[in-house]
Amino acid sequence: MPRYSLFFFFFFLIAFTSVGQIEGPIRVSQNKRFFQNPDGSPFFWMADTAWELFHRTTKEEAIYYLETRAKQGFNVVQAVALAELDGLNTPNSNGDKPFHALDPFQFNEDYWKYVDEIIDLAGEKGIHIALLPTWGDKLYKNSWGSGPEIFNETNAYEFGRWIGKRYADRKNLVWVLGGDRNPRQGSKDVEIWNFMAKGITEARREDNPILMSFHPQPNRPAGSSTWFHQEEWLDFNMHQTGHCPNQPTYRIIAHDYHLHPIKPTLDGEPLYEEHPNCFNAKELGYSNPDDIRRIMYWNVFAGAAGQTYGCHAVWQMYTLDRDPINGPLKPWQISLDLPMANQMKHLKQLILSEAYFSRIPDYNIVLEQQQDDENFVIATRDESWSYVMVYFPTGKSVTLNLSDLSGDLKALWFDPRTGVSFGYSGDPIRRGINSVKPPSSGRGNDWVLVVSKL
Fold it and tell me: Where is the Apiosidase-like catalytic domain (predicted)?
């Protein structure tokens, strides 16, 4: 086995076969670009979308879900306390609703004890919960959602204080407001979210600072930063790049990457696996791993602090006895093992294999003028040029400017589909201008070139 493959093999064993105890909430790195663990080690956000986790699973199902995702390398799960799918009126799997009454709120302790239990189970398996206090339809329904619309400035603050205090001591939590809604012009939506954030922030413990973000609908060119970037409570930005396969998502990440103050940014809802493309399965079919993988590598190489994954059947915890939302193809238990759910870890593995906090995007490494299409080649590197990574989504040959690299260089190809790496063949990669041809080309033939100093 080549020495590069051996390196990644042993890295895989270390990274994904042992789950350590979570010592505290993740934090923003010193350079404000990424996340880190309390001990200062890198935390690469590798999330799954399980919006209905608290609402549509039994304890046994939740354990199975969390154990599966932990084995696959996921370290974050995004889930909603007041769930999307009629979360106020349809009981959870234990027969409980979140409230006994809504005006004023009378909390049903049995419901919230189950949320407590699942959060704690996730922590035991090394998983952080990105907790949405509510789905956005509880603030306004827009064109879909069952609501009812229950929040205003006063009770949003009260709810924020209550839920913030309840989970202020949790070590495996990240707060995410929003829930698939963008604030409307001329409304009080921004004020209501700010009041909820204020309530949560006031309940925060100084010795356990839980990060907070906002999950929007697709919005160009920015997501959460459009309304909240200057708010102190917004610790990092989140996008929903949407469920179409033909979007230049790197441009969206790049927008927030250049904002001030500097904050981490990531894609919190990309194209889901086995999701109808652009919600039009009849004409456009369903998503495929090639498109999902391309979006994820684009985002991270553009400077994202990690990446969220989603599966169309899993987010809604679909089973054959439930009404399907937008045509899921199979029950969620089977869908846990789809290709991209098992390929996500390769991206995490690759990024953590080199210097982490000093990584930056670099669009000048590729010399050709490029179109914003599926062939777009993107590069990331260390600030000191100790390494360069170049992602080729379709194996297109390009010319690379590696003039700032120095010393003896080593090069390898990394396969995003398998996580396997092997030595570079052809003319040696040298300092200066290099013409590079990947091992194969065409849709589904994506590769990463890794060049580093010996």
Answer: 29-357
